Amino acid sequence: MGCSSSTGRRLQQEAVLKADSLRITAQRSKALYQLLLFMQDTLADQKETLNRLLAATSSAEFTVEMVPDSLPEESIFARSREKAAIEMRPEIKAETIKKNKQR
């Protein structure tokens, strides 16, 4: 009977492990669902706030799209401003003058 009680215990432990696994899966699914609901509510609240700030009607639908960090024209302008700013720095100016004198 030692084998039978050992097998019975093993089956009982497997059943407990399976039940624990199912419980944890259910808790995880519930938490993810609650997070999804929270995020949807937050988005709706933020859209409503934006509508109020824009003085739009609350029924006005809009979508939000990602905007590139900079447009190509802005990038060229930014590089020229950056170059001009670097050239204006005293230590850069001094180094440039030093190099020009050495030629």
Structure overview:
With 103 residues, the protein is an all-alpha fold. The chain has a domain at 67-103. The protein is built from three helices and no strands. The chain has helices at 2-53, 72-88, 90-102. The longest helix is centred in the first third of the chain and has 52 residues, at 2-53.
End-to-end gap = 101 Å
Radius of gyration equals: 33 Å
User: What structural category arises from helix and sheet content?
Assistant: mainly alpha
Q: Unreliable stretches, pLDDT < 50, 5 or more residues?
A: none
Order of helices and strands: HHH
Count of alpha/pi helices? 3
Mean pLDDT: 81
Strand content: under 5%
Give the overall form: elongated
The helix fraction, in percent, is over 70%
Summarize the main sheet: none
